[in-house]
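Colleagues,

Please find the record for the two-part complex below.
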Amino acid sequence: MVTRKALISATLVAALGVILVLGYLAGRTFREPARAISIAGMTVLEPASPLPEFRLHDQNNQVFDLTRLQGKWSFVFFGYTHCPDICPTTLVVMRDVQKIAGGREQGIQYIFVSVDPDRDNAATLGRYLPYFHPEFIGATGGHGELMRLTRALGAYYESGEARGGSYEVHHSAAIFLIDPEARLRALFAGPHDAARLAQGLQRLKGG
Amino acid sequence: MVQYKRFSVGVMLMMTCLLAVADSNILVRDAWVREAPPGAAVLAAYFTLENTGTKEDKLVAVRGPDFAKIEIHATEIRDGVARMIALDALPISPHALVKLAPGGYHLMLHHPRRELAAGMSVKLELRFDSGAQLTVVAPVRRAESGAAHHH
């Protein structure tokens, strides 16, 4: 009889233990993923978010895919060349970040992804980007591939209505920072400031 | 008599034109065109409008011999998304300044008729709701970062 009582209480204790552990784990899984910390216009993803496979082409008609993001830090901005104001303004900021933080030799690359593949191709990007910096990479591809990348980064683009033979493309104003393991590590909301971008990178590289 | 009337109407019309110019309370300052990469289909122009008068005026149209079309635009960033909005008119309140600057209001200059590079300049003809017309000569400049603009 005593043993039976002991068995019942042991079972109860065990059940309670299981419930506690499950509860703890559930709480953890709800709290843990994609914690985002925002400091001074920079949102850091904790943990960094891995990117899916995608396939674009750069201004030299070379494949630009996930492997091109591995082994270096990348600043990525989405825009289009028929954009006279915010895109060149942002590219000038990126040029200044390059001056402060460095480029290829320091393992940092700067990527302009055109979300207007109907008007921008390798040749267009090849004329456009060297004006800002000879090292800058321009890439674009089909809407399916572009969407794969933008969706993974939480970026957005959409072509506006045609008006007088032309159209605008609405696009994220943010600059995205990808780590050497090709994971989204941080994003900068803008208005962009070169010193802040360079500091943000420095902080993440250091720790 | 008829001829005299015609003549006076003519004089009056001429006077109105002169008045429109003389009466323009709008000043345009610091106009410049952002140099674009070679072959770019669009450029942007910026300047500051000042209304020294007591009545609101509006910039309603801009033309220029170097471009196929010029539009008044605003870059608007909402929920992290940058959009260009074409404006029918840009109001300038009495005694107010309206700044066209990178990341905000700008003129969108479509399809330059010649390759424009820093050191060149373009003519912009601004038309206002009041009837005033101003011609501005805007130098083409290479844009530096935000801080460098003010030098």
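The longest strand of chain A covers residues 42-50.

Comments are welcome before we finalize the supplementary table.
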